[in-house]
Amino acid sequence: MTAFVEDDIRELLDELGARLEAVGRRASVYVFGGSALALTRLRDRSTEDIDVVSRDWAELVDVVSAMALDYDLPSDWMNVKGAGFAVGSEDDAGAVTFVTGGLTVRVASSRHLLAYKLRAARVTDEADIQHLLDDLGVRSVADAVTITRSVVGDDPVPDLDYDDLAVYLGRYRIDG
After folding, report:
1. What is the tens place of the pLDDT at every residue in 35-50?
2. What whole-number distance in Å separates Cα of residue 96 and Cα of residue 133?
3. Is 0.85 topped by the overall pTM?
4. Which terminus has fewer CB within 10 Å in the chain: N or C?
5. Cα–Cα distances in angstroms (integers) from residue 175 to residues 108, 134, 136, 149, 151, in the given order
C-alpha cells in the first residue's frame, strides 16, 4: 500500500500541474478527505490516495494514468470514487486555493471535511472527526449536526438521518 504525506501530495499535484501545462491543458480539482487534512496541516497524517472531485476529469485521466505508470503508483492514486461524499464542494467558501502549472487546486475547508467525514460515518474516520471537532471548536452535537446539514443538506446519506447522526456523535468529546 502506498502512503502519501503532505510533501508527497504536493509533489504529485505539482507534477500533475506541470504535465498539464506542458500539453496546453488546464484543469481544476477539489481535494477532500485525508489528503486535504494533510495539505492544510490540520492533521499530520498519511493517506493512501488523493480524493478529488473534478469536472475536468477527461482532461486529467490520461495524465494521471501516465503518472501512475511513471512513478509506480496505484492506478487510483487520484481517486474520484468518493466524489459522492463531497456534496456542496462548489459552495465551500473556506476552501484554500492554489495554482500549480495547469492545475487549480481547491482544498476542502474544515467545515466541509467534518460534514463529509460525518456523512461517511466510518470507523476509520473517527480520529479525523475528533480532530476536526476540536479544530472547529464544536462543543455540542447540535452544532455538529448544524454544520453537517449546512454542507450536505437535509439528506446526509440514505441510511443515516440526523437523529442517527446525533447518536453517532455521542462517541466524541463534545457535550450533548
Report:
1. 999 998 877 778 899 9
2. 19
3. yes
4. N
5. 26, 12, 14, 18, 21
